[in-house]
Structure formats: structure tokens, C-alpha cells
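for the recovery benchmark. C-alpha cells below, seq after
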């Protein structure tokens, strides 16, 4: 027969093991959420760059009048070269410029009548849709990471390490088109 203190020690050891396993699982989950945020941000950046490239292609395609081309090219350039703080505003400006271009009277009919017009319109629609989806996925990942970081255990034990607090990416990303 084993002494009573042995069972107490065994219970405490098992409890500490389970607590350690839970903390390890929580830290791993938080790390995976941060990786998910970084991956979603990279996909969002790629979608935004692709949309601005398509906007620049449309501006340079001679399918638009010179003034409209200049406005669209300027908005696309600003969106591509904006720093982190001004990026949301520049991308929103590009969205508004694209909608202003596409909402012009008879725009779709005039562009579709040209030989390379339908391809440019399809590419613009696809790039704009990808921005909407990528931003949605990114903001969902940010929401999950922020929820996990608000948990008491994560705050008491600094399980997030030095990872930056993830921020939402809010832009006017309503797609252009009828």
C-alpha cells in the first residue's frame, strides 16, 4: 500500500500536467491565429495591388477620355504608394474613382464595343471582387485573433509575446459596376 501523500502528489502532478498542456495548446492556437492574420494580410495586399494594376491598365488603355484616365491613374498610383497609415484612405479613394468611372453613362457599352474592352472589364470585376473577399477573410482572422487575445489566460500569462495587436482593414470596397 502506498502512502496517502503519494496519491496527493500524483494528483497535483497530473493537474499541473493538464494545466501545462492547456496553456501550451492556447499558446499554439494564438500563434496559429497570428499566422492566419499575416497570411490573410498578404492575400489582401496582393488583391489590392492587383486591383490597382488593373485600374492603371484601364487608365492607360485609351478606353477612357484623358481626364478620366488621369483621375483613375492618380488614384491607383496613390493606392499603390501609400504608407501604412494612409493605405485605407487611398484604397477607398481608388474604389470611389473606379465607381465614378464605371458609373459614367454608357461606359460599359462603349468599352465593350472596343476589341480589348470586355477583357479589361472582366479583369476589373474579378480584381474588385477579390478585394472584397480578401478584406472579409482578413477582418474575420483579425476578429478571431482579437477574441483569443482578450481571454484572461492570454492576458495573465503573456502568451501573445511581442506580437502586435491586429487591426481591422476598413475601406470602401463596394465593387464598381451596374
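predicted aa per position
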Amino acid at each position: 500500500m502506498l502512502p496517502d501523500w503519494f496519491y496527493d502528489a500524483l494528483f497535483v502532478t497530473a493537474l499541473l500536467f493538464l494545466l501545462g498542456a492547456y496553456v501550451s495548446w492556447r499558446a499554439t492556437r494564438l500563434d496559429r491565429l497570428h499566422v492566419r492574420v499575416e497570411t490573410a494580410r498578404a492575400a489582401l495586399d496582393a488583391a489590392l495591388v492587383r486591383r490597382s494594376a488593373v485600374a492603371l491598365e484601364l487608365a492607360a488603355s485609351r478606353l477612357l477620355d484623358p481626364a478620366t484616365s488621369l483621375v483613375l491613374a492618380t488614384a491607383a498610383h496613390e493606392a499603390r504608394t501609400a504608407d501604412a497609415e494612409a493605405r485605407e484612405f487611398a484604397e477607398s479613394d481608388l474604389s470611389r474613382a473606379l465607381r465614378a468611372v464605371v458609373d459614367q453613362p454608357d461606359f460599359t457599352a462603349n468599352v465593350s464595343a472596343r476589341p480589348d474592352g470586355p477583357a479589361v472589364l472582366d479583369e476589373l470585376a474579378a480584381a474588385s471582387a477579390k478585394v472584397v473577399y480578401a478584406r472579409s477573410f482578413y477582418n474575420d482572422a483579425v476578429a478571431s485573433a482579437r477574441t483569443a487575445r482578450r481571454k484572461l489566460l492570454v492576458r495573465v500569462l503573456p502568451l501573445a509575446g511581442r506580437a502586435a495587436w491586429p487591426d481591422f482593414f476598413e475601406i470602401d470596397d463596394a465593387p464598381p459596376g451596374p
